[in-house]
Amino acid sequence: MTPTDPPRYRVHPSPIGDILIVAADDAIVTLHPFDGPLDAEIERVSLQLRVAPVPADEADAAAAASALFEAATTQLDEYFDGARTAFDLPLDWSLVRGFTRAALQAVCDIPYGETAGYGEVAITAGAPRAARAVGTACATTPFSIVVPVHRVVRADGSLGEYGGRPDVKRFLIDLEQRQSAPDETATGLSIPPAPPGAREAWTADE
């Protein structure tokens, strides 16, 4: 990726740690919580983009990206406050190709407050035997939270690593299930929140 203007980034605090948001050409290129030095995370993203992002407030054309960063940070805050169940942000999928993109777009169809297994996502993405590839797609996604890879669990219902931070995955799943529970009871049905993996109807070797 070699945009005319360099990609811009902003770091936004959240209950799961700082989130790095990188945007280029008026779309988000990557959005991830990170655990470690910011310089190391910027270096990792720079290798992916083949250009170093610059802080949003130091870019000459930052005004054009300002609304995008404001929308992203506002929607993240609303999500963590339990006031948002879906994101409405322009995403640049140029770092994602082939089945990885199909898998991640299938992940976007998992309803808020629910989970699905790797095998189920593989079927939705059109490759029923590609459960392992779904796991790889989730592990290497440029987008966390806004593309809810935390909703994808193992066949036995266990969470999986989530980039080595299963505590973050548990936090996000619990957050969503707490918020979705009142909607279920409001219908008059007494249905407890589904445990992780409850929607998994397929055997995935993950």
SSE blueprint and pairings:
Blueprint: E1 8-12, E2 19-24, E3 27-33, H1 38-49, E4 54-55, H2 62-80, H3 98-107, E5 116-117, H4 118-124, H5 131-140, E6 152-153, H6 166-186
Parallel strand pairs: 1-4, 5-6
Antiparallel strand pairs: 1-2, 2-3
Helix pairs in contact: 3-5, 4-5
Can you walk through the features of this model?
The protein contains six helices and six strands, in the order βββαβααβααβα. The chain has helices at about 40-50, 60-80, 100-105, 120-125, 130-140, 165-185; strands at about 10, 20-25, 25-35, 55, 115, 150-155. The protein has a four-stranded mixed β-sheet with strand order 3-2-1-4, with helices on one face. Strands 5-6 form a two-stranded parallel sheet. The longest helix is centred in the C-terminal third of the chain and has 21 residues, at about 165-185. The two termini are about 30 Å apart.
